[in-house]
Amino acid sequence: MPLVDITYAPHVPQDVLRQLRSILPHLVSLAVECPEEPYDGDLQPGDVVLRFRESGPLDSGGLDVVIEIHSKWFESRAADRQRRVDELHERIAAAAPGLTDFGIYLSLPVAAWSQGEE
Fold it and tell me: Is 108 left (phi over 0), alpha (psi -120 to 50) or beta?
């Protein structure tokens, strides 16, 4: 289950942010799929968590949008992480033509996750 943090500059239009909200779950799932966590194309609530945050006056950077993806480390996923993030960048650029000045950070920490209804 990837966690995706989207930090955006105040001047980024809401329609671009809505477009990201629409396309990121599928595109991120494609980018991080691996034998240990295959993607079947049927996203359920909680499969991908998106968190949007407007950058503040004390933040530094320079890009309009920074997309940070945190997904559990697996050797198969980590072995080609640069290819994965480069392809994801291309797919986002193609799917969201209004977004031009953005970067993606893919982090693969050793982690565990538990989810369930009580």
Answer: beta
